Predict the 3D structure of the following.
Amino acid sequence: MYKIVISSKFKKAFRKFALRNSDLQAKIEATIAAMENDISAPNLGTHKLEGKLSGLLSCSCGYDCRIVFSLTTDDESGEQIVLLLDVGTHDDVY
């Protein structure tokens, strides 16, 4: 089980992206819910990023929709934390 934390940049990008692609809003929300259980689920297509986004991960929430996030561990509780950083089309986030 993962704890999802949403950054202010992600919130802003989500609002902007959802306005342009209202049909994807529910799909993004479903993807985030699935990430709480298992970020490595095959349907998410989670993969490590390279280049300027090295150290971050990305998953798919539709044909041309990506969520960029980081994965850390809380030192006190040992809980895995998924920090959502950005959402948008492939070209928007990379």
